[in-house]
Amino acid sequence: MKKTIFLAAYVAACGIAFANTDTLTFVRELDEVVVNAPVAQVTNNHVALTNEQLNQSNTGQNLPFLLSATPALVATSDDGLGVGYTYFRIRGTDHTRINMTLNDVPLNDSESQTVFWVNMTDMASSMSSLNVQRGVGTSTNGSASFGASINMQTGNQCWESGVEDKSRYELSFNGGMYNTFREMVNAHIVLPNQWRANARFSKVNSDGFLYRTASDLYSYYGDLGWYGTKTKVIARFFGGSEKTGMGWDGVDYNTAYGIDGADRRYNPAGEYTTTAADGSDSTAYYPNQTDNYAQQHAQLTLIHRLSTRWNLSATAHYTHGAGYYEQYKRKKLSYWGLLDNGQLAIGNGLLAIGEDRKAYGMYRKHLDNHFFGGVVAAKYISEPVDVQLGGAANYYMGDHFGTLNYLEDSLILPINYEYYRNDAKKTDANIYAKANWRIINRAQEQLSLYADLQYRYVRYERNGMNDEDMTDLPLKVDFHFFNPKAGLTYQNRGHLLSASFAIANREPSRNNYKENVVYDAATGEYTGLPHAERLYDYEVGYAYSHQRFAVGANLYLMDYDNQLVLTGEYNDVGAYKTKNVKDSYRMGAEVMAGVKIADWLRWDGNLVASRNKILNYHQYIDLYDDQDNWNWVGQDSVVGTTTIAFSPTITASSLFTFDVAGFTATVQTNVVSKQYLDNTEDENAMLRAYSTTNVNLQYQLPMQQWSKKDNAPDIRLLCQINNIFNAKYANNGGAEASRFMDGSRCCWYYAQAGINVHAGFSVQF
Questions:
Q1: How far, in Å, CA of 688 to CA of 71, rounded?
Q2: 498 has which bridge partners?
Q3: Could you please report the per-residue DSSP string of 220-279?
Q4: CA angle 656, 658, 659 (to 5 degrees)
Q5: Rounded-to-integer distance, Cα 612 and Cα 586, Å
Q6: What tens digit of pLDDT does each residue of 554-563 get?
Q7: Residue 58 class from Cβ within 10 Å (0-12 exposed, 13-18 middle, 19+ buried)?
Q8: Residue in 526, 336, 538, 503 with CA at minimum distance from that of residue 419
Q9: How far is C-alpha 479 from the geometric centre of its chain's CA atoms?
C-alpha cells in the first residue's frame, strides 16, 4: 500500500528526499531547495512535489504557512491563524523582494511586488510542483529573482509523462477552531484523443483568531490540455475572491503576549467611541472594516519538441484584479483633500471651519488593474553542453482611487465623493541566455559549470494624487539591469560540492516611491527618490547522502548596495515603509540533516545562523515626554553598525515522522530567535523569540483490503494540532520612529493563536 505522505512543506526545508527504494538522496541544485517528500522521484537533482504530497497538511492555511519549515523562512499572519492575509520572509528578505512565478509567469504584483495569497486561497491544491530557492535565482526563476525565488507549476505532471491513464476525483473537508472550514472539490479528467483536464473549486471560511478578522474566501482552477507526442497545448483559468476583516492595526506588547490577563484576541480595527444621551461613552466597532478583492488569471501554454535536441515553449497570460478596502477612521479633513485655504471644500461650495480638525469618515480605497504579456524559451540539449535562450515582455495598468461615502457632523457630501485618483503603467521586459557544461560526466563523478546572463528593462509611470497627502506625484523612471550568474558543481559518490556567484538588481516598489518622494510642481524637481537595489550573492555548499542519512551545509554572503530595508513603520493600509541604506549585508550558514532511524521512524532538521547588518547607519529619532501628552522635547540619533529589522539570528526546524500500517504522525517544531522591529537595535522595539510545535495525524483506511476491489476509494482521515504547547507569541509587528524620555516606544504586534485543532477527511476515487 502506498505510504501516506507527511508534511511536505517541511521536507522542502531540508532538501532531502527518500526515493522509492528508501535510499536517502540529498536533492539540490547549487543553493536550490526543491520541495519533495519521502516517496518522491528524484530526477536530475530535481524533485517534483505532486498535488497530493503538498496538501497532506492543508487545512485552510495559505501557502506561507504550508512552507513554514523551509530554512530561514518566517511566516506571518494578520488574523493569527494563517488563513487571511499571510506573508513570509526568507533570510530576512521580505515578500516584496522574493520572486514568485506560476507556470513561469510572474505572480508578483507589478507595483507592490508581492503576492497576496489571500486572493489565491487553496492554490496549493492545484500545484504539481513547487521549488524554493534562497539567494539569487537563475533567469528561468523569473525576470527579477532577488533575495529568494519560489517557482510553482500547476496541473498534473504524471499526465505529461504519460503515466496517468484514468480519471480521478477528490472531495475534501476540514473543520476546526475559530469556525475555520475548508471544502474542496477536485477533478482530474482523462478525455479521448490525448486530451486532459483539471478542475477545482475551494471555499475557506474562518472567524480568525483576532476578533473581526473573519475570512470568506473562494478559489477555482481549471485547465484543458492536449498532450501529443511532440506538442502540448494547455489553457489554464484560475482565480479567487476574498472578503477579510482587517487585522493590520496590531496591538500593544501586553495584549500580544497576554500579560496581566490581557485578551490576546483584541483587535482595534474599526474601533470608535459613542456618547449616549446621558453623556456616558461606550466603545463600538464599525461592522464592515473589510478588504474585498477578486482576481482572475488566464494562461495559454504551447510546448513543442522540434527534435531530440530542441524544445520550444511559450506562454501568453492575462490577469485582472479589482476590489477595495473599507475603513471607518478618525482622520484630519486634509487627509481626504477636503481643505481649500483653511476652508472645507465640498463639491463647488465652501464651508468655513477654521481649522484642519479631525472627523470620523467611512472611506474606500479602490484598485482596478490589468497585467498581460508573454514568456518564451528555447532549450538545446546535447552532450556535454545544454543551452537555453528566452525572455519575457509584460505590461501592467493599474487605477487607484478613493471614495468618501460618509463624514460625521452631517456634513453634506456628493454620493461616492472621489477624493483622489492616480494611475500607473509598468513595462517589464527581459532576455537571457544560460548554458550548462558537463566537464566531467561519468557514472560516479560529475563536474558541471554553468553561466546565466540576463538583461532586463523596466519603465514605471504614474500620474495623479498621492493617496495619503493629496499632493501631485507624476513620475516616469527607467531602469536597465544586467544580471549575471555563474556556478560550479562537483559530485562524487554521494558527495556534492557547489559554488555560485550572482549579481541581481531590483527596482523600487510603488510604496517606496509614494512614501519617500516629494515633488515640487513649480520646479518639476523630485527629492527623496529611492534607488534600485543591487545584490552580490556568494554561495558555497556541501552535501553528503548515504543510504540512511544525509547532511548538508550552505554558506552565503548577500552583499547589498542601496538595500531597501524595512523601517518598522507602516502606512494606513498596513504596508511596511522602507528606505535605502547604502551598505549592508546578510551572511549565514544553513545546516540540514536527515536520518532514517528505523523503517517506521525518520528525523529531519535544519538550523540557520545568520548575521544581518547595516554599515554606517544613521537615523534621527524624535523624543517625546510621555505617551499621555506627546510633547516634543528634541531629537536623538542612532549611529553605527546595526542589525537589520525583522532578521532573526537563528531559525531552526525539527520534524519527526512515524509511519506504520497506514498511520502517519509528524511532530514539527519551528524556532525563531528575537527580531528587532526597526534598525536601531532597541530592546524596547523587539519581537520575542518563539517556538511552536505542530502535530499532524493521518490514517489511510484500508479500503482495498476491506472491499477486495482494486478501484476502492482512497479515504484518509486528518487531524492537525497547531501550537500544541499553547505558546503566546507574535510573529510580526512594527514601531513608530520616535521614543519617549523613559526609553519606551510606541510599538504594535500581531498576536498569533494558541493551541488550535483542525480535523477532516479526503476521499479520492
A1: 19
A2: 489, 541
A3: EEEEEEEE-SSEEEEEEEEEEEEEEE--TT-B-HHHHTTGGG--TT---TTEEEEE-TTS
A4: 145
A5: 4
A6: 999 999 999 9
A7: buried
A8: 336
A9: 25
Higher-pLDDT residue of 203 and 417 is: 203
Pair 103, 299: CB distance under 8 Å: yes
Instruction: Give the three cell numbers for residue 71.
Output: 530554512
Angle in degrees, CA 647, 650, 653, rounded to 5: 120
Per DSSP, the three-state class of 743 is coil
Residue 235 has pLDDT above 70, yes or no: yes
Cα–Cα distance, 672 to 558 (Å, whole number): 20
How do residues 265-299 score in pLDDT, each as one tens digit? 999 999 998 888 888 889 999 999 999 999 999 99
Band (pLDDT 50/70/90 cuts) for residue 575 is low
Position of cell 538522496?
25
**Cell (9 digits) for 529:** 527618490
Question: Collapsing DSSP states into helix, strand and coil, what is residue 100?
Answer: strand
424, containing H or E segment: strand 417-441
Q: How far is CA 389 from CA 62, 435, 500, 747, in A?
A: 34, 9, 20, 49
Average pLDDT, the chain: 86
Listed in sequence order, the residues at least 6 apart from 628 whose beta carbon sits closer than 8 Å to its beta carbon are none
Q: Is the pLDDT of residue 93 over 60?
A: yes
Residue 510 three-state SS = helix
Encoded amino acid at 45, one letter = N
Per-residue pLDDT, averaged over 16-44, amounts to: 32
Contacts for 513-519: CB closer than 8 Å, 24+ residues apart: 513/462, 513/473, 513/475, 514/466, 514/467, 514/468, 514/473, 515/571, 515/577, 515/578, 516/579, 517/473, 517/475, 518/471, 519/471, 519/472, 519/473, 519/474, 519/475
∠ CA 569-570-574, nearest 5°, is 150
Q: What is the pLDDT of residue 14?
A: 38
Domains of the chain and CATH, by start = 170-222+241-299+307-764 (2.40.170.20)
